[in-house]
Amino acid sequence: MKRFSGKTVLITGGASGIGRGTAIRFAEEGAKIALADLNTAGGLETAGLCEAAGGEAIFIETDVSCEQAMQDFVESAASRLGGIDVLFNNAGFPGAVGPIEALSVEDWDKTFSVLVRSVFLGMKFSVPHMKQRGGGAIVSTSSIGGLRGYAFGHAYSACKSALLNLTRSAAVELGRFNIRVNCICPGQILTPMAGGDHSDLAALEADMATRQPIPRAGRPEDIGNAVLYLASKEAGFITGEIITIDGGLLAGCWDYKAPAEQDVPSSAGFIGPSFQIDAQGDA
Ligand SMILES: NC(=O)c1ccc[n+]([C@@H]2O[C@H](COP(=O)([O-])OP(=O)(O)OC[C@H]3O[C@@H](n4cnc5c(N)ncnc54)[C@H](O)[C@@H]3O)[C@@H](O)[C@H]2O)c1
């Protein structure tokens, strides 16, 4: 029997990238999936890919920032699939970007409505179904941008950070209902949203391989595998947790670049305390 046979999984932002990759992984494990997205062509394509991978899938065009649309998505998915076991809150975009003094209030609020309000709405409408079922798992997509600040991405960073404590507060409240709530922080993943020149995907992939210690581009299925784990019974004692999946990027620093061959040291060295460096003549 497959790991998610008979389980129902709701995925927002399922038309593309991480949502699509995760949907396919759940489908390979036998799940029944409901996909929500604004992108109908992409959503239908993902549903087809899920069916081909061995799952069942439906797509419902949904603006995740809209309360009525999210309620309709959740209710329709629950009735068509037969309840809700897993909710993956994942839809997103970069939102308002630019110098802080130039950001408009309208763009700021719109970013929050898609990146934060949608996650609250997903939880609000799915939790009653999970309680009825005796439990469930919620996973939301934050970002390494929610763990670190970066210039010109203030709204995105603030939104993704908000998801960390929404995850924790919901986990604290819902544990006694056997509903686990966790959050993932992807690093740089090769999806249409990833930064860089998408006109030459091979070059972009090669460039992304240099952006973190693991020397390859992050892939949607890297995130999907973590979401499957968090949704599985093997993660039954994990809740309120934030998992970073970034190929080691935050283990180092944001500006990590794979060193050029000639810069790779051929032997070990020792750099002492900084106050000694001048004295050693090393600075
Ligand atoms: N790609 C990365 O490097 C990366 C890194 C960290 C976090 N993330 C996060 O991962 C999530 C998925 O992003 P992705 O990289 O797969 O990008 P993507 O663009 O491939 O997928 C995002 C999906 O969300 C959908 N969406 C956006 N606004 C929506 C709305 N209002 N209603 C319904 N659907 C909407 C888009 O149509 C798209 O299909 C996002 O939350 C993003 O912030 C991505």
Kindly list the characteristics that best describe this protein.
single chain; 283 residues; alpha/beta; Rossmann fold; 7-stranded parallel β-sheet; 7 strands; 41% helix; 14% strand; disordered C terminus; binds nicotinamide-adenine-dinucleotide
Structure description:
- This protein has about 280 residues and is an alpha/beta fold.
- The protein has a single domain, classed as 3-Layer(aba) Sandwich (Rossmann fold).
- About 40% of the residues lie in helices and about 15% in strands.
- It contains eight helices and seven strands.
- Strands 3-2-1-4-5-6-7 form a seven-stranded parallel β-sheet, with helices on both faces.
- Helix 2 (about 40-50) links the parallel strand 2 and strand 3.
- The longest helix has 29 residues, at about 105-135.
- The protein is globular.
- Mean pLDDT is about 90; it is low at about 280-283.
- Nicotinamide-adenine-dinucleotide binds near residues 37 and 192.
What is the topological layout?
Layout: E1 8-12, H1 17-28, E2 32-37, H2 40-52, E3 56-61, H3 67-81, E4 86-89, H4 105-133, E5 136-141, H5 154-174, E6 179-186, H6 201-208, H7 220-231, E7 242-245, H8 274-280
Parallel strand pairs: 1-2, 1-4, 2-3, 4-5, 5-6, 6-7
Helix pairs in contact: 1-2, 1-7, 3-4, 4-5
The structure holds nicotinamide-adenine-dinucleotide.
Residues 13, 15-19, 37-39, 42, 62-65, 90-93, 114, 141, 143, 186, 188-189, 191-194 line the site of nicotinamide-adenine-dinucleotide (NAD).
